[in-house]
Give the backbone structure.
Amino acid sequence: MNDADILGRLGELGLELPPPPEPVASYVPVTQAGSLAFVAGQVAMVDGHLLHAGRLGKQVSVEMGQESGARAALQALAALRYHLGGSLDGLVRILQLTVFVAADTEFIEHPRVANGASDMLIAVLGPDGRHARAAVGVASLPLGASVEITVTAEVSE
């Protein structure tokens, strides 16, 4: 992929990559094994504050969950860009997205929430942003987040 093209596409969408995420515990944002890069769990943060805390079906709407997923996807791209030396030129494609949704026991719209992250990756990266995916409901997430994502990407070695 071409870093300038990706940044240009973000600009067309009225977006920009956030600063690379800082770990909040004992882990690194990205690890790499051969041509696979694994992005650690990302919860949606804006200016150091959690976006849309709570559980889907209770305090958080599907649309708010989608917004959290989209923001977390941008953070994952920022983490990859930092890991790849400040450029997404080494990004080949997104392979897998896992979306964890903190949800009330009656909530069943996990795939719709996960679309926020999926649609963002596809909007920014085009066909190379399409991916396999799992949307998983959980009782709670770190910091009280409503959505957390992990990403596996193919990168140049």
